[in-house]
Amino acid sequence: MDCRELIAIAVFAVTYALISGRRLKVLPLNRPAATLLGAVMMVTFGVMTPEQAYRAVDYDTLVLLLGMMLIAAYLHLAGFFGWAADWILKHAGTPHRLLLYVMLASGVLSALLVNDTVCLLMTPLIVAVIVRGRLPLLPYLMALATGANIGSVATLVGNPQNMIIGHLSHIPFVRFSASLVPVAVVGMLINYVVLRVGFRKKLVKAVIEPGRSEDTAPAVDRTLVVLVVVVLALVFGGFIAGFDLAWTALAGAALLMVLARRDTHEVLKLVDWHLLVFFAALFVVVEGLSGTGLPEQIYERLRPVFGTSAGAQAWNLSWFSVAGSNVFSNVPFVLVAGKWIANFTRPELMWKVLALTTTFAGNLTILGSVANIIVVESARGYVEVGFWDYAKYGVPITLASTAAGVLVLLMIA
To answer: What band does 4 get if pLDDT is binned at 50, 70 and 90?
Structure first.
């Protein structure tokens, strides 16, 4: 290796040490700041030119994220998420059914919008209605987080790694969902069984307080909700028709800005700009590493491990992705592993396996996905969720849903 390649590897290592340091509260830099520093170092130390850094950013992914966040923000301003959370508590009837409703609502909304955004907007509301109903919080927080992760696998707009996979693989929106919706359904079923059995003692003693949700029923702007639903339907119609995902989503968001007659400053405040900065800088850092050829060298060493048949490659990529996603985080792992997919026997199948496993891997621990962290941190004032409190349920959910999902993909994809 020459000096430039060594510097690139060192910058990559420092960046991920800082990301991990943030998680462990050793250093004050958060994830966006750490990746931004890494991107700047890649240019400062001559690994990349500014022009190469600009070209490394996948603007389609950023635009798609921005468009879906803006649409979700209008739903929030319309009071939809508050109404949905209150409706779930009012109509659930039993704690077990409430667990199912929270999980399904989280999963379906995450498939339509973005799991991180859904968790950010829904967690405070779900916490409020669960506390009002005098129920144990942990089962429903688990249902919210794990449901969001599992449901998001169903579409190319459900989570950031799927968005990246969509742009890298060029798999049509409908063909992707035709394979991954059944996977999400099976994953949801396993998720519910594990949570219901795991929390059976807590839930059997729980009773929903009747009538309490009606006292503070949230006001809903029905006109705005209808408008957002219509625009969202048009956006998904564009996805199905094969239009560009990013600009279709952004066009829907722009249409809402024109028609909704709301202060756009309030809407833009609800966008997770930190996440957009994180991904933009991350693209630069990963591209700097890729220029060294290290990802290809790693793959060449692992090639015999993956096997030669499609089935063997699917299973081996699965365990490797679950491990890699929890060590490096799922989005960086997808950016690196995505460069290997063309070498597999059935690339399209492997793209879908990569989407499945990096998404379901998020349920393994609290740190497995941003959605988990959002849920746990948002509820910190009411309940402390420890690492093992989560992992006790997250590990069996991840292992069982991943194994079942790969089986489903091998049968239908």
So the answer is: confident
Nearest alpha-carbon partner for 275 in 115, 54, 139: 115
* Cα–Cα distance, 180 to 289 (Å, whole number): 31
For residues 169 and 165, what is the distance between their CA atoms, to the nearest angstrom?
6
Q: Is 24 exposed, middle or buried (0-12, 13-18, 19+ CB in 10 A)?
A: exposed
Mean pLDDT of the region 55-59: 90
Q: Name which of 338, 347, 390 is nearest 368 in CA terms.
A: 390
- The end-to-end CA distance of the chain, in Å, is 40
Residue from 58, 118, 64 nearest 281 by CA: 58
350 vs 315: CA distance, rounded Å: 10
Burial grade of 86 (CB within 10 A; 0-12, 13-18, 19 or more): buried
Query: In 199-329, where does DSSP find H-type helix?
Result: 200-204, 212-215, 222-241, 245-259, 264-269, 273-290, 294-306, 310-328
C-alpha distances out from residue 170 to 163, 164, 174, 228, Å: 10, 10, 12, 27
pLDDT band at 213 (very low <50, low <70, confident <90, very high): very low
DSSP state of 218: P
The tokens describing 259, both together, are 């028609």
